[in-house]
Design a protein that fits this description.
Layout lengths: L4 H8 L3 H4 L10 H21 L5 H8 L15 E4 L4 E4 L8 E6 L3 E4 L46 H12 L8 E8 L2 E7 L9 E2 L3 H15 L30 H5 L20 H6 L3 H5 L16 H12 L5 H13 L8 E2 L13 E3 L1 H12 L3 E2 L2 E2 L3 H8 L17 E2 L12 E5 L3 E6 L4 E7 L9 H9 L7
Antiparallel strand pairs: 1-2, 2-3, 3-4, 5-6, 5-15, 7-9, 8-9, 10-11, 12-13, 13-14, 14-15
Helix pairs in contact: 3-4, 5-14, 6-10
Amino acid sequence: MRPGYVLLVALACLPAAAMAGETAPFDYFDANRTMIKRGVQAVLTCNGLFTSHRSIEQVFAQELAYMGPHIGDADGGDYRIHEDLRAVEIGTEDNGPVMRAAFRDGIGCIVLAPDQDLDDIDRLPRVGIPPPPVDPATLPWPDGDRVPDAPLPPRVDPVALTAASDWAFERPTPEQFTLSLLVVTDGRIVLERYAPGVDRRTRTRTWSTAKSIAATLIGILVDRGELQLDAPLGIDWLPQLGSPQTDPRNAITLRHVLQMSSGLYPVDSFGREYATGSGLAYWAGASSVDGARSRGLVRAPGTFWDYENYDTLLAVYAMKRTFDSAEAYRLFPYRELLGRIGMHNTLLSTDRFGDFILSSQVYTNARDLARFGLLYLNGGSWHGARIISPEWIDFVRTPAPASSVRGNDYGGQWWLVPNDRDDVPADAYATAGNRGQYVIVVPSHDTVIVRRGLDYRAQGFDRWDLTREVLKAIAPRR
């Protein structure tokens, strides 16, 4: 690739007004933004009511708080809730497309395309998740939800732990709203706190914490030899070329997309995440797979870090291609991960074509995420049975080469302690999702920290500050 080529491509994509430093006179994505905004409201309302089992008042006050003005309010407006169908409709045809979302068993809510209506719900996918063999309420933690009342471990300071809890919940701004905080040390729950109206059963959206779950599922297949980190993805790229074997995107490997350095044209960055790109799959009924395969290469793979949902979705598509049937693909997460470690409250959502949107759309509760963190803390084993290998954990914890300019803060779909932080252990690593969804694993302290939030606008809740505060109460493991 010639020097300056990337810069020229980037400049060519900008409006002339932007190049001249002027405000663009017309937003060519305005119709998309309206459609996506209504789709956001449809999906979050549907999941809030039928996946999280929250009230419409809670949905408007918290689930929808981050998206700015929305249609209607808790008392009514241009939206309709269909309890019998477990579906919602947002808007009217008079002033834009009506966006709809419907709950599907084993999946959560799926957004429909603008040209679909409620009669299309029965054609949406569903997943028949087998029920747990034993009622989780009767099983002891961590396989179940029976938590004994026992003294704290000697290396936990109860006063400092309470102070950390108060720090997480009593924020200086209402825009940071903590739903739950859970701390596990020595395999035991030493702190569990919920906001009013929330309990251990409440499922909320993980946002990008889902990416770390996706990486775990992919790691299972890499450990089995069914996927290779450094082999080409084997994707059938779009648009289809007359000579697909010469497509430069064939150089992209699984490692590249997991490390957010595919080199593909950015579509979720630069303020466009609610105008185009993966937003069309998340909120408007487009195919997550087709969108992920439709970007052109603008940089050499592995050379530039760019946080893109579609990079994760390319890895998920590569995972899908290892299965012989849609049923095997959709049951794989439950058979090989979630069901094995007691994550029975977790739903992995799909688009309307049945492809997992594992870059963002997972609904779960704090205890299930704590189980997920424990799997990593325990080196990838659960009761002695190997689920992921220590080598895979090493991979996700190793800084992506292209993240060096950022302080080496990103591995393989997990976030790492940046170079400039010396107030938390360097061995800590974390998931991170919009609105403050964190699972923080700290091996040196044998600790997992889970924080769920519904932050909005400025947000700004810092996961490493939370780690610092919690670890003031927990002495390092000897």
